[in-house]
Design brief:
The complex is a heterodimer.
Chain A (H helix, E strand, L loop, with lengths): L2 E5 L2 E5 L8 H8 L18 E4 L2 E4 L12 E3 L4 H11 L17 H6 L17 H9 L8 H14 L5 H7 L11 H20 L1
Parallel strand pairs in A: 1-5
Antiparallel strand pairs in A: 1-2, 3-4, 3-5
Helix pairs in contact in A: 4-7
Chain B lengths: L19 E3 L16 H5 L15 E7 L5 E7 L1 H4 L4 E5 L10 E2 L6 E2 L5 E2 L5 E7 L2 H9 L2 E6 L6 H5 L23 E9 L2 H5 L4 E9 L11 E6 L5 E5 L4 H12 L6 E5 L15 H11 L3 E4 L2 H7 L2 E2 L2 E9 L5 E11 L7 H10 L9 E9 L6 E2 L6 H19 L3 H8 L19 H10 L9 E2 L2 E2 L17 E14 L8 E11 L2 E7 L9 H13 L3 E4 L17 H28 L11 E4 L2 E4 L4 E4 H5 L4 E8 L18 E14 L4 E12 L6 H20 L33 E4 L16 H18 L5 E2 L3 H5 L3
Parallel strand pairs in B: 2-15, 11-34, 13-14, 16-20, 18-19, 25-26, 32-33
Antiparallel strand pairs in B: 1-26, 2-8, 3-7, 3-9, 4-8, 5-6, 10-19, 11-17, 12-13, 12-15, 17-18, 21-22, 23-31, 24-25, 24-30, 27-28, 28-29, 31-32
Helix pairs in contact in B: 6-7, 9-10, 10-17, 11-12, 13-14, 16-17
Classes of the chains: A alpha+beta, B alpha+beta.
Chain lengths: 203, 804
């Protein structure tokens, strides 16, 4: 079957999709967006968390056919998504597709690679605040859980800009991490919230 | 992008690792918390893991695994599978290209594909390559295998019984000659003094039998990789592993290829923790690629991953501790039985560790230790973070608490009184010749203020998220009791028992864009621990550069050894430091040649490279590095070794077997819902001596991560194997639980830096020690809260409620 969907603000079309394929398979194997990770394929680990019409879901549990005509945001589009939210104020996200303007083209997503000027510590690359906070706080080790955690954490901060530790733990309870012991992930989310607050005050 | 195969006819697959480059706003040398050079790639989703590899025209490989634990294979019929549209190849043992059909880390006892018999549930039997993963899965399901069931060996009794099935009847490994029974993989006694005689001096003797469950590494990135056939008849393999050259040594003979025709590149690795020491899909993908002439990708799903790698050895441990009335240990005797499962994997080395570290970080002169690993039909067990020391620590720390209780002493005081220190003799006779601050680590975790009581109470009522049972809303504090427990452990660093444990580093220095740049190339597997961060820091410190390029790890450079045994910062870090020093000498020689006449200081030996310049030890600038190098490039590839170790004597266990020791202590605070048997760990504080923190932020990450894996082992993680059928009952994240962010408490960490003068920068390997003491500390806290004995881990609710 053919599936039409919007991914990170760009209309996409996937052909020859088998009925049993998941959204995760379509993203990773058909649309060239392997950022969302497959660690359990049964909705237990959260590594494939994406936003479907704004709602965080495990892409492995969404059948490809279910996303027909809908809007998906993956880790590859998180920086753009956050920037547009910033421009449109809190809650003004692009789930409707109304502000899909630049987006991340498939070509761009495929073509990303390290360059000499990119220090790999965030300079030179447009990152969402929560992405930068994960780097700065040391919340990334092997990084396999990171894409899903980033999408989930970003969504929580959108809803709840000043979360308590218990709020953070509750929001991220569906995302397994085996490397960090979660302490630095908590630090990263606290840091992103604090920076967001500071920026809000400055405006 | 340069073609990594060097073969212009082979297009480079998508997801091929690229160099990562790191500049720095600050100096970025050792001791600073510089950020990961792969951080941006990882947070943008761009970092290519082995499961992200993609090649035009690639096929998907699928493995058919045994559905039973021990059986003769009567017949295999692949015809129906082969007839499926989209299927390119189906392979069984009969299709293997050479006489070398087995592999293994220590003994070559593991069949690439089952040879007439399967010895554990989930053993690979046949391979399929097809154009869609689902096609491959369905085709594999159509392979008809007829099994004739054989009796299973599941524990020591059944393994050593008269007439027990012998799992490997034709052993020719180096331990076969000295074990009492062919189902014993290896046995290592460690005997020192006279434990029986010393027992007469004991005023108090405590004994205990302990059971340690089977833990899974549960790294998040499943086994995966891509094999690309090359025009020269060889193969390019992109894979997630812990040791490229060890894989290569095992893969090439099975394929019938010389090692230089199996070119391996490390893909992005989604965690390891020991579970990638053994081969998984490597040979299978290569076989399918060479058979079909097409690139073949294999990606395990989580179910298969539970069968696709070895686990931590489950163990039964029997201990006897004696002490005088004032609390001095008189003797320790123990017997540790490790279940190695169907194949040897790393079992012999795990036995060596369990035996040599069996009494823990305590000074005791009279010991009688025996550790064995068995062959059974249970899942194969091998390396996991802590490697034999973990099981022992769980038992000896339970014993120390039991002894303290019998002596009516404070458990921390008892430990401190018997704590080893620098100069103490290990049971193996090895003198501990660097700091061993065991008593101090315990003091530090104990001195920390306790978290407030009834921390779930708030003005709005009970926050159930802070209570046992969490959002299940099972209690608002009724029936909840608190307990506090302590533990300390000792772990060896590096490969032991005389192993030639070297690493190799290639370091290049040249001018790029008017600036001196260092390039570091090693085969070290970056599995998330941050080794590449540290390599860049070492290069900056030693060579005075800002910009460091880290080349992808591959087999075009010499072996780095394994990312195991807390060894990479020590050994490959040592190799990078050593090669940098050799490069520096060459750079200075060039400088003397070019500028020696300009300034008398060039003649002195005390020159340094700092801030892109050659400076005297007094800080005077002699030349810019870019001017010294001009258009010359300096490159060195050199091997580096730590101090040699010795094998343990097979009868007495004596020998200087270990390179370095590493120590951590924990204090656990738990709250237990005694009615439902639910445990909430409230805080898990750790103190660890790290020698020198090359990257303090990464050190914290290692300690907190290791602590959390120990917590999982205490209260939730266990692969459950049916004792009658030896089949795995819970191969999924639904049924095998690892700690979530809600299960994990705050983990305050106290870092001590007491230099080990034998190690580069005085550092101590850190990754494993925190995994040891975490589990027994939590168990001690639960015992403290409930008054129960709790001799097995993980603790399940029924152990606390007494429910049958």
């Amino acid at each position: 079957m053919r599936v039409n969907l919007t991914v990170n603000g760009r209309p996409q079309q996937a052909d020859d999709v088998w009925e049993g394929e998941s959204l995760l398979y379509v993203l990773r194997e058909r649309l060239g967006l392997p950022g969302s990770k497959n660690a359990c394929e049964q909705g237990e680990c959260g590594s494939c968390t994406v936003r479907l019409d704004g709602v965080p879901v495990c892409a492995c549990l969404v059948a490809a056919g279910q996303v027909e005509g809908r809007e998906v945001v993956t880790v590859e589009g998180l920086a753009d998504y956050a920037r547009q939210r910033e421009q449109h104020g809190h809650g003004g996200h692009c789930a409707t597709g109304a502000c899909a303007a630049p987006g991340t083209s498939l070509q761009d997503a495929r073509g990303w690679s390290a360059t000499g000027t990119d220090s790999q510590t965030g300079e030179g690359t447009a990152l969402a605040p929560v992405q930068q906070a994960f780097i700065d706080a040391g919340a990334v080790q092997c990084g396999f859980c990171t894409p899903g955690l980033l999408v989930a954490a970003d969504e929580m901060l959108e809803r709840n800009p000043s979360p308590s530790d218990e709020d953070i733990r509750e929001a991220l309870a569906g995302n397994l991490c085996r490397c960090t012991g979660y302490e630095k992930i908590l630090d990263a989310v606290r840091l992103a919230a604090a920076r967001q607050e500071r920026q809000g005050e400055a405006v | 992008m340069p073609n990594p195969t060097g073969n212009p006819a082979t297009p480079t697959p998508a997801g091929t690792p690229t160099q990562v480059t790191q500049g720095s706003r600050t100096r970025g040398g050792i001791g600073e918390s510089t950020l990961r050079p792969d951080g941006t790639l990882k947070v943008t989703g761009e970092f290519a893991y082995s499961s992200d590899m993609w090649h035009e025209d690639m096929l998907w490989g699928q493995i058919l695994r045994s559905t039973t634990a021990h059986a003769e294979i009567v017949s295999i019929d692949v015809s129906e599978a082969l007839a499926q549209a989209g299927v390119y190849a189906v392979l069984t043992h009969d299709d293997l290209p050479t006489d070398v059909t087995k592999y293994g880390l220590e003994y070559q006892d593991t069949p690439v594909l089952a040879d007439g018999v399967v010895r554990h549930h989930g053993e690979p039997v046949a391979l399929v390559a097809a154009d869609h993963p689902e096609t491959a899965r369905r085709a594999a399901a159509r392979i008809r295998v007829e099994y004739r069931e054989l009796p299973v060996v599941t524990d020591e009794t059944s393994a050593l019984a008269d007439g027990a099935p012998i799992l490997h009847p034709h052993r020719d490994d180096h331990h076969a000659g000295h074990v009492a029974h062919p189902n014993i993989v290896h046995r290592q006694p460690v005997v020192r003094g006279d434990a029986a005689e010393a027992a007469r001096r004991a005023d108090v003797v405590v004994t205990g039998e302990y059971v340690f469950g089977m833990q899974d590494q549960a790294f998040l990135g499943p086994e995966s990789g891509l094999a690309v056939p090359a025009e020269d008849g060889g193969v390019d393999l992109y894979v997630a592993t812990q040791w490229l050259h060890s894989d290569l040594r095992q893969i090439a003979p099975v394929l019938g290829l010389p090692e230089d025709k199996v070119r391996m590149t490390l893909s992005g690795v989604g965690g390891a923790f020991g579970g990638r020491e053994d081969l998984s899909m490597q040979i299978h993908a290569c076989l399918l690629a060479l058979r079909t002439g097409k690139p073949v990708k294999i990606v395990y799903n989580r179910f298969e991953s539970f069968f696709g790698h070895v686990h931590r050895h489950p163990a039964r441990l029997r201990y006897e501790h004696g002490a005088t009335r004032d609390g001095r240990l008189t003797h320790i005797s123990c017997r540790i039985v490790l279940d190695g499962g169907a194949y040897a994997s790393a079992s012999p080395a795990v036995v060596g560790n369990a035996a040599s570290l069996a009494v823990g970080p305590y000074a005791v002169e009279d010991v009688d230790i025996e550790a064995v690993a068995l062959y059974t039909n249970n899942p194969p067990c091998g390396a996991m973070r802590g490697f034999g020391a973990v099981q022992a620590c769980f038992a000896y720390e339970a014993q120390m608490d039991k002894l303290a209780k019998a002596l009516a002493m404070d458990p921390v005081e008892l430990r401190q009184m018997n704590a080893m220190e620098q100069g103490t003799l290990m049971p193996t006779g090895q003198r501990v010749d660097s700091p061993a601050p065991v008593a101090e680590l315990l003091r530090r975790v104990k001195a920390r203020p306790l978290p407030p009581e009834r921390q779930w109470e708030s003005t709005a009522g009970a926050d159930v998220r802070a209570l046992p049972g969490g959002l299940s809303n099972t209690t608002h504090g009724e029936g909840v009791v608190r307990g506090v427990g302590y533990a300390v452990g000792i772990k060896n660093v590096g490969f032991s028992e005389g192993f030639d444990d070297y690493s190799t580093a290639r370091v290049r220095m040249e001018v790029v864009g008017g600036q001196a740049v260092a390039t570091v190339h090693t085969a070290m597997a970056e599995v998330g621990q941050g080794g590449i961060t540290v390599h860049a820091q070492i290069a900056r410190t030693e060579l005075g550069v800002t910009q460091v390029v880290i080349n992808p790890a591959d087999t075009r450079v010499g072996s780095a050894g394994s990312t195991s045994a807390s060894r990479q910062t020590y050994v490959t870090g040592g190799a990078v430091k050593n090669s940098c020093e050799l490069v520096r000498e060459k750079v200075l020689a060039i400088g003397r040649r070019r500028f020696g006449t300009h300034h008398p200081a060039w003649a002195t030996a005390e020159l340094l490279l700092e801030g892109g310049k050659v400076v005297t030890d007094g800080g005077e600038v002699l030349a810019d590095l870019a001017e010294v190098l001009a258009d010359e490039a300096v490159e060195i590839e050199a091997e580096w070794r730590h101090r040699p170790t010795q094998a343990f004597d097979l009868v007495t266990g004596q020998g200087d077997g270990h390179v370095q020791y590493s120590f951590a202590a924990h204090r656990a605070v738990v709250e237990v819902d005694t009615e439902l048997g639910l445990v909430k760990v409230v805080e898990l504080a750790c103190a660890q001596d790290v020698g020198k923190a090359l990257n303090p932020l990464s050190v914290l990450g290692q300690i907190q991560g290791g602590t959390t894996q120990g917590l999982g082992m205490a209260v939730m993680e266990e692969i459950v194997v049916d004792p009658k059928t030896a089949k795995v009952r819970n191969p999924s994240f639904t049924d095998y639980l690892i700690p979530t962010i809600l299960d994990t408490p705050t983990i305050p960490v106290d870092i001590l830096e007491l230099a080990d003068d034998h190690a580069p920068y005085g550092l101590r390997g850190i990754g494993e020690a925190p995994t040891l003491s975490s589990t027994p500390a939590v168990l001690a806290a639960i015992r403290n809260a409930t008054g129960l004995d709790l001799t097995r881990t993980p603790v399940r609710p029924e152990h606390l409620t007494g429910t049958p």
